[in-house]
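Quick note —
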Amino acid sequence: MSVKKINSPEFEDAIKSGVAVVDFNATWCGPCRMLGPVLEELSAEMEGKASFYAVDVDDNQDLAMKYGISSIPYVAVY
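Predicted structure written out below.
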């Protein structure tokens, strides 16, 4: 399993599909790039127990505003 990149239209369905770990990030964010491989590894360990998603806050500003995300990386579990 791996971390799936999703956008605003896919978000609601993704978090309704069971346990969902969502990494809100941006391509320019150094700490986000460091966290990415860790989440990839964790997604493999948690296969069948949780789904892992990544949301680029620059491309999906509506989600960042809706969920009050003002700093990244931000990881939420739904």
